[in-house]
Amino acid sequence: QVQLVESGGGLVQTGGSLRLSCAASGRTFNTYAMGWFRQAPGKERESVAAISWSGSTYYADSVKGRFTISRDNAKNTMYLQMNSLKPEDSADYYCATDSDYRRTIVRLPAYGYWGYWGQGTQVAVSS
What we know:
The protein is mostly beta strands and 127 residues long. It contains no helices and 11 strands.
């Protein structure tokens, strides 16, 4: 059974940094795309970043240049390094993974693309 567990969320001031982690289990993840999406209260879910099984990365325009997605396949863990945080980045952040083996992604997928996701970790950025 695929399980994804996020960690690393918290409260930070504007301009600060956080690193989210996503620990994956239940299968070997190095041949599946993974990503992050977020949802703020009263707002639609929004894709944030994705990384293909081959290591290509994709970002939402709103986070490009500030967030970095990466994966450590040996640890079955994905990360989201978030720098220069803004109050509008406040949301619950979810990690997700594809359900299809070696499916190619060529752009940031919509949040509905993912086959599995975790319970989320909360990020709050104070102004």
